[in-house]
Amino acid sequence: MTPIRRQYLKIKHSYPDAILLFRLGDFYETFDDDAHLAARELEIALTSRSMGKNLKVPMAGVPAHALESYLSRLIKKGHKVAICEQLTTPTSSRAIVERDVVRVITPGTLVESGLLDVKANNYLAAVVVESDLAGLAYADITTGEFAVTQLPADRLAPELERISPAEILTPETDESSPTDGLSQQDNYAVSPQPGLSFDLALARDALLSHYGILSLESFGCENLPLAIRAAGAILDYLGRTYKSGKPPVGPLSTYSTNDYMTLDAHTVRNLELFQAGRWGSSALSLLATLDRTRTPMGARLLRRWLGQPLLDVAALESRLDGVQLFHDDAFLRQAAAADLSRIADLERIGGRLESGNVTPRELLALKDGINAAAELAGRLSESGNSPADGPAGLQLARLLTPLPDVTALIDEAVAPEPSGSLGEGGIIRPGFSPELDRLKTLASDSRRFIADLERQERERAGIRNLKIGYNQVFGYYIEVSKSNLAQVPPDYVRRQTLANGERYVIPQLKEYEAQVLAAREQIEELEVDLYRRLCRQLAESVDAVNRLAHGIAQVDVFAGLSEVAVRNGYVRPQVNNSSVIAIKDGRHPVVEQTLGAGGYVPNDVYLSNDDARIIVLTGPNMAGKSTFIRQVAIITLMAQVGSFVPAAEAVIGLADRIFSRVGLQDDLTTGQSTFMVEMVETAAILNQATPRSLVVLDEIGRGTSTYDGLSIARAVIEHLHNDPRLSCKCLFATHYHELTELAQTLPGVRNFNVAVVEEGSDVVFLHRIAPGGADRSYGVHVARLAGLPPGVVNRAWEVLGDLEKPSGKSAKKARSRGPAAMQLPLLDASQPLLDEILKVDVSNLTPLEAINKLYELQEKARGGNSV
C-alpha cells in the first residue's frame, strides 16, 4: 500500500458519512465507494489508480478550478462533502505532502457565493423537544446571524416554516421529527447528531467559551435550557464541519415568538407570500410585488419582516415613519436608491472576511459600500433637519455608523485594480510594503535585463538570431541555430539539443535566474502574509460592519416600500389595538399588478368583534370571492409588516394571527384525501384562533356531499360566532346560499355577495362586493367559459332545470324571470336619478365602467348600498 493510500484511508476513517474530495495537484479525487457515488451523481468518468502492489482502486475526480459547480450538484442531492486540501507544497524530497480536511460542507454550512441565493438567508437550525416545549436555534454563517428561542412545541413547525432552514440538527435519540406538521412541499435536510451535542452543561460551556463571558444573562437565555442546548449543538456542529478557526457566528440574539404574528404553512401558502400559482412561482408572490430593495441585505430583511408581522403598535409606527420619510420626499428617495445601488453584500463579505475567504475585490466592494453608506447618512441627516420630515431621517442616519478606519486601511493596502492571483504581486498597493515593492521591482526588471543580455551576447558571439528564452524545465537558456554553432563562445554550457539548434546556459544567466526565482518566491510569501494580516486586522471590525449592514438593510427596505407605495397608490394604514378592520377601496396588491392600471375593482370591508364579526360572502365562481377575502388578509398583514397598503383608507386593529383555509389540496403521502386535509386545517384554526385572530375560510365543506358539507359549514360559522374563546373576525366565502339565513339569528353575521349582471345566457362579473346574499352560483356559465363542449353545457342546463323543478322553478324560467324582476321603469325614476343619468359621458365610458355605473344607479334606485 502506497503512503498516499494510507494517508487517504486514515482521513476517510474520520469522515465516513461524507464524500471525501482528496486534493491531488490540480484535481480533487474520490476513491472506492465515494468514486462510484461521485461518478454516478456527477456524471463523470470512473477510472482507477494503482495504490500499491497488485492494488488498483476506483477513482473519479473533478478539476479544482471547477469545484464549486460540482459541489452544488452534490449538496442539492443531499450529500455531505469533506474537502481535503494539501497543507504543504510539493518539494523535490520524497516526503509525502501533508493533507487534512479543512471543511465539511453541508446544506446549512455553505459559504460559496455561487451556491447561495443572495436574497435569502441560508440557515442551519437545531431543534430539541421535551414534552410540550421546544428549543430552537438557527445561524447563517455567511452573515453571522445567530438566534435562539424557547417556545411551545406546537408553535415549532410554523417557526421552522418561517425561517426555512437549509438543514436541521436533531438529537439522534429523538424519535419525534421536528418537521411534523410542515407542508409536504418543504424538503428539509435533517441531520441527527450525537446526544452529547445537545447536553446542557456542554452547550452552556461552549457558549461561554466561544463568547468569553461568565454568564448567558447578557444574551437573555440564561433560563432557557432548551434554547441553550440547541445553540450549543450548532456551535458543536460548526466546530466539527468548519475547520478554519472558530465558528463564524456573531453575537447571540434571544427572541420570543410572542412578539410576532405566527403564520402557519397553510396561511403562507394560501396568501402566496413567497410563492404563487400552481407551479409555485416566486415572481407572482407578495414578496416579489413589494421587493424594490437595492441591496441583498435589504432583500433578506424584507423577507424576514414579511414572515414576522409585528404585534407592537409603537414598533409599527416607527417602521411606517421610515417609509413615510421616503414616500414624501421624491429627491431623497431617488438619491437613496442611487446610493444603495452602489452597496454590495456587506453582511456576506463580513462573513467571508472572518473566515479568511474574502477576495481583494470584495474588500474594495466593502470600502465602496461603507463610503456610499456614509453619503446616504449625510442625506438622511439633512432631511431630518426639515420640520416636515421629523426625526425619522436622523434616526435612520444613526443606523449608518461611519467606519473610516476600515476604509482607510483597505485604501492603503489593496491595489485599486487588483490583478492576478494572490501571491503574484498584483494585490497589495504599491507603497504599502517597501520590501514587497523592492522584490517586485527586481522581478519586473527581468525583461529589461534579458533584453540587454541578449543584445550583449549577440554582439559578443556575432550571432544575429541568438535569443534568450525560458521554460519550466530548464529555466533561462540561450538558443543558437545549427547554422551558427561554430560561433558559440567557449563559456557556453550546452543543456539541450533541438532539431534546429542547441540551447546553452552561462554563469551570468543562471545567477540572475536564481535571483529572479528567489524574488518571486519571496513576493508570493510576503504578499500572502501581508494579505492575511490585513484580513485579520479587518476581521476585528466585523461586528461593526454587520451593524452597518443591518442599518443599510433597514433603510433599503423603507426606501423600497416607499417606492412601491408611490408607484401603486398605497396609503399609510392606521394601526391600533382595537378590534376593528376597516378598509376603503381595498385592492389585492399582486392581482392588481397582473391586471394593470385601472383593471382592478376596489372594494370596502368592515369587520369588528363588537358587531360585524363574520362576513358570509356568496356569489358565482370566477367573480372574485377568493381574491377579496385574501385581499383583506394581505392588507392586514402588510400593515403589520410596516408597509403602506393598497387602499384609499385603512384602519387595522392588530391581529395576533391570520388563518387561511383556501383551495383544494390532498396529501397522498400520508393517505389524506382532499376533504380530510380541509378538515384537518379547519380543526387547527378552530383550536388555535383567539378573539384577536383574523380567519379567512373559502368553501368549507365542499369536499363532501351537499348536506354533509352544508352542515359542517354552518356548524363552523356558529362555533366561530358563539364560542367565547373565539368570537374572532372571519371572512367566509361559500356557495352554500342557505348559510345566508344565519344573519337572521346570529347578530355578528353579515351577508355580502359578489355582484353580476346577467345578459341572456351570458353573465358579466362586476367584482363588486354588495350587501345581501346571492341565490345562484352560475356554475354552468363558468363551465361554458372554460371551454367545455357545447353538448356538455347544454346537457348541464337540462339537468339543472330538472333539479330545480321541485322548488317550483326551472333554470330557464329563473333566467327569464330574474332580469324582469329587477327591471326599473325609467320614466318613473326620481328626478335626481335622471339628472345623474344625464350627466354620464356615455361616449367615453369603457364597457366595464358602463356596467359598473349601471349597477350603481340600479342600487341607488333601490335604496341599496355597496360595502
From the N-terminal CA to the C-terminal CA, the straight-line distance is 85 Å
Tally of alpha and pi helices: 28
The percentage helix is 40-55%
Q: Which stretches of 5+ consecutive residues score pLDDT under 50?
A: 181-185, 666-670, 808-829
User: What is the number of E strands?
Assistant: 26
Mean pLDDT: 86
Largest sheet: 6 strands, mixed
Biggest β-sheet: strands ordered side by side in the sheet: 3-4-2-1-5-6
Structure description:
The structure is a single chain. This protein has 28 helices and 26 strands. The strands form five sheets. Strands 3-4-2-1-5-6 form a six-stranded mixed β-sheet, sandwiched between helices. A hairpin with a 2-residue loop joins strand 1 (19-24) and strand 2. The relative contact order is 0.06.
Task: Give a short overview.
By secondary structure, the protein is α/β, with parallel strands linked by helices. The chain is built from 28 helices and 26 strands. The longest helix has 33 residues, at 507-539.
